[in-house]
Design goal:
By secondary structure, the chain is α+β, with helices and mostly antiparallel strands. It has one domain: Cytochrome P450 (Cytochrome p450, Orthogonal Bundle), CATH 1.10.630. Helices cover 49% and strands 9% of the residues. The strands form three sheets. A five-stranded mixed beta sheet has the order 1-2-8-5-3, sandwiched between helices. It has a three-stranded antiparallel beta sheet with strand order 4-10-9. Helix 6 packs across helix 7, helix 7 crosses helix 8 and helix 13 packs across helix 15. The mean pLDDT is 91. The structure holds protoporphyrin IX containing FE. The site of protoporphyrin IX containing FE (HEM) has 22 residues, from helix 11, helix 12 and helix 15. GO terms for molecular function: heme binding; iron ion binding; monooxygenase activity; oxidoreductase activity, acting on paired donors, with incorporation or reduction of molecular oxygen. Pfam families: p450.
């Protein structure tokens, strides 16, 4: 079945529906691999990292940033991920970052309160994600402005590579990260994050630590922007605001469910790539060893066999927690609790300080992107 890549980038859901109806695991010539749009099939691929691995020379991440938890599987993956797990556990995030995240989100929104509008991506979501990341990493002598710069250098390399233009390794960002890591290792009062990575029974090397920090800088910004933008888009859509009818418009659980449902219906990380380590059959698909297998999270999250009436935004779904926006299996998002905290605080800050805000449809766009998805601009009129 021929696929229109432009449609898959700009308006993917009808294309993904047609793919799934043809076969939940479909060979796509234009992408030179298998596209998985069925929910059960996506779960099977993501859970089984022995058969569907990230560890393949074609996966550009390792070339661009060095080895990290996202480029290896098996025991090596457990070693990398184990080093960073503690500071990202829910209690650690709650204790260490709730107040800081709220302060940063409030500050960004209050700064727009006397203006006519706020552009949610550039004036709230991106600066929030970057400032929180700077806070999380706790690197010595590092300002949010430097983290912004490193993020842009890393993101530009990834974007060029994903667009089929072989990218140069983002050397300067990696060199600067390396020098901060070395400094942290030498200091006595290290950050909780790097402390965990560079001590213990089997500490990571400086290069391995840098690789993982670089992954967090990509994984922790682009996706947060998409997640916040999509949640705002659904919540502020005129006449379709499920919270407007809620007795307490700032009810935390209602906001969390709305965020989760917006992640189901429009996941910020839309496609996850794996490589088959062996010949394997899924349904009618005969996958060969070495084949690229692309899990379409956007497709799986709208599989009607799993989510009834999948194109409708419904935060009251009983099985909402099954959505795959943070993936599943060994590479399940490390930053999931931080991401949810950021989205919640961004929405609370908007509701607290800009109660009259409404979506300015003329200055807002729908999400685009093949792998990372977000709108180019999303504007709330403040009055
Ligand atoms: C809404 C925001 C976010 C979304 C939608 C998201 C989504 C994802 C997804 C889908 C994966 C799996 C990738 C794969 O299996 O190929 C992943 C992995 C990862 N995410 Fe996130 N992420 C978000 C925020 C964050 C944040 C804030 C951080 C924090 C630094 C983070 C750090 C990571 C890391 C380190 C991995 C690799 C985990 C591993 O390989 O074991 N993410 N994320």
């Amino acid at each position: 079945m021929p696929i229109d890549l432009e449609a898959l980038t700009n308006d993917p859901h009808p294309v993904l529906r047609a793919c799934r109806e043809s076969s939940p695991v479909l060979w796509v010539d234009e992408l030179d691999g298998w596209l998985v749009t069925g929910y059960d099939e996506a779960v099977q691929v993501l859970k089984d990292s022995g058969t569907f691995t990230v560890q393949d020379a074609r996966f550009s991440t390792a070339r661009l940033t060095g080895e990290s938890m996202l480029t290896v599987d098996g025991a090596a993956h457990s070693r990398h991920r184990g080093a960073f797990a503690a500071p990202y556990r829910p209690a650690a995030i709650r204790q260490r970052l709730t107040e800081a995240t709220r302060r940063i989100a409030d500050g960004l929104v209050v700064a727009r309160a006397d203006r006519a509008s706020i552009e949610v991506l550039s004036e709230l979501a991106q600066p929030l994600a970057i400032a929180v990341l700077a806070e999380t990493l706790g690197l010595p002598r590092t300002s949010a402005a430097e983290v912004v710069e490193w993020h842009h250098l890393l993101a530009a390399a990834f974007e060029a590579d994903a667009a089929g233009r072989p990218a140069a390794v983002p050397t300067r960002a990696l060199d600067e990260l390396r020098s901060r890591v070395l400094e942290t290792v030498r200091r006595t009062e290290a950050s909780p994050l790097l402390d965990a990575a560079t001590s213990g029974a089997d500490p990571l090397t400086v290069e391995e630590t840098v690789g993982n920090l670089a992954i967090m800088m990509i994984g922790g910004v682009e996706t947060v922007e998409g997640m916040i933008a999509h949640a705002v888009q659904y919540l502020w859509r005129r006449g379709a605001d499920p919270l407007a009818e809620s007795p307490d418009a700032l009810d935390e659980r209602a906001v969390d469910r709305a965020i989760e449902e917006s992640l189901r219906i429009e996941p910020a990380a839309a496609r996850l790539d794996r490589y088959a380590t062996t010949d394997i059959q899924i349904g009618a698909a005969q996958i060969r060893r070495g084949d690229l297998v692309m899990v379409s999270v956007s497709g799986a999250n709208r599989d009607p066999r799993q989510f009834a009436d999948p194109d409708t935004f419904n935060p009251d779904r009983a099985n909402l927690t099954r959505q795959l926006g943070f993936a599943l299996g060994p590479h399940y998002c490390l930053g999931v609790h931080l991401a949810r905290l950021e989205a919640r605080e961004a929405i609370f800050a908007l509701r607290r300080h800009l109660p009259e805000a409404h979506l300015d449809v003329r200055r807002s766009e729908t999400p685009v992107g093949l792998i990372f998805r977000k709108p180019r601009r999303l504007t709330l009129a403040v009055r």
